[in-house]
Amino acid sequence: MPALPALRTPALAAAGLIGGYAAARLTGRRELGGAVLAAAGAGAARRWHRQAGPGTAVALTGLYLAAFGGSHPLAKRIGAWPSVLAVTGVVAAAAALAEHHRPTAR
C-alpha cells in the first residue's frame, strides 16, 4: 500500500488555526482548541525547519503564534470567524511562499 502524501505546511497551519478555534467553539473547551492549535503548530514547525531551515521555521512559527494572539482583538472588530479566517490566510500564504522559495543545495 503506498504511503499517504505529506500534508503541505500551509494546510497544516490552517488546520491548526481553524481547527483549534472550531474545536474550542463547538465543544466549549478552550483547552481542546489549544491542543489542536499546539499539535498542528508543532508539526508545521518541524516541517518548516526540515524544509526551509531554522530561521524560516522560527519566523513562521512566530507568525503562527502572533496570528493566534492577534485574532482575539481582531475578532472584537470584525467577528470571530472572519478574524480566524483572515489570520489563517496570512499564515497559509507565508507558509506557501516559504515552501515555494526553498533554499537550494549548492
Identify the notable features of this structure and list them briefly.
83% helix, mainly alpha, single chain, 4 helices, 106 residues
How does the SSE layout of this entry go?
Elements (H helix, E strand, L loop, with lengths): L8 H19 L2 H23 L1 H25 L1 H21 L6
Helix pairs in contact: 1-2, 1-4, 2-3, 3-4
Describe this structure in words.
By secondary structure, this protein is mainly alpha-helical. The chain contains four helices and no strands. It has helices at 9-27, 30-52, 54-78, 80-100.
Question: What's the quick description here?
Answer:
The chain is built from four helices and no strands.
Indicate the structural class. Answer: mainly alpha
Find the count of extended strands (DSSP E, 2+ residues): 0
Strand content: under 5%
Order of helices and strands: HHHH
Mean pLDDT: 92
Oligomeric state: single chain
